[in-house]
Specification:
This protein is of the alpha/beta class and 353 residues long. The chain has 14 helices and 12 strands.
Length: 353
Amino acid sequence: MMPQVRTTARAFGCHRVGQLWNFKTRGPAGQSVRRNDNKKDEMTATTARAATRSTPMLFSRQRQLLQLLDALGGTSGMLDFQKLLFLYCQESSTGAAPYDFVPYKFGAFSFTSYADRRKLIERGLLDEHDGWQITSEGRKVIGRTMDMHLTAFAKRHSGLQGDALIADTYRRFPFFATRSEIAERVLAGDDAALARIKAVQRTKATSSSLGTIGYEGHTLESYLTVLLKSGATVLCDVRRNAISRKYGFSKNTLARGCEGVGIRYEHLPELGIASEQRQSLDKQADYDALFADYERTLLPKQQSALKKIQGWIDAGERVTLTCYEHQPNQCHRHCVAEALEGKAGKALIAEHL
């Protein structure tokens, strides 16, 4: 019997099925020849290639979102599904949760899940209506859900909806109710739950008026949560060009996210470093040389920007400087922070979040 070999190619994390070939050995020297398989196998390979091309590529989090919606019956109200997705992520026992959340107008909210919703609608996997509804194509893409944790979660929460569902999230996770506009209504009569929310609102993790943060390794929601817990009131973006391929960190999206959680967004591009100067930074010594030049040649010319930041601090704001890198010693924001510290003396010490 002739052995059959399937050739594959990896492209963007997916496998593309190639042609099917038979190999037949003949002759005393064992010379091999290759010939096309029969028409039936050629048609099978062509069909497989077409199916692979037409199947939408999903992030793991998007697949989990669709699986959860399917397990809940395939349809859910906008607010209900957001709260159920939040609870599912908080109760996840299978590693990192697919989505992060921030305290928002009606409690826990994920900007990323709504961005994914728009993408899934465009791909025909969700129906475009006032709630969340999976399509037949969406069910086909995710296949049969075998996740017992997800199935058990859906069964456990199947009867919870509306104000009762919202109140449950507020009682269990008071931090995420700290910006709610409806807490007094949905928790009417539950003075203990309302007191816990107010206690969290009064808690500030830092006493510093100046902080710095990089968004490397963060989702938009985890980033905003760090800012909220630090007590930041102004986010000062010190990137030359406030654009990013990572969702949530281009200027307009980041500004809207900040505004939604009560943090003012400011952009001071004059404090940034041109991208061409940031090439070939392989060692810490390369960063140190770049920042030494920045402090010597560029930063002294930006006294107006530094005075603007100092003015916000003097007015009682808690200002956090932001750029990309997680480590402050690999980002010029630490140079800006040190310049502000130098002008204020011991009265100002930056905290790197």
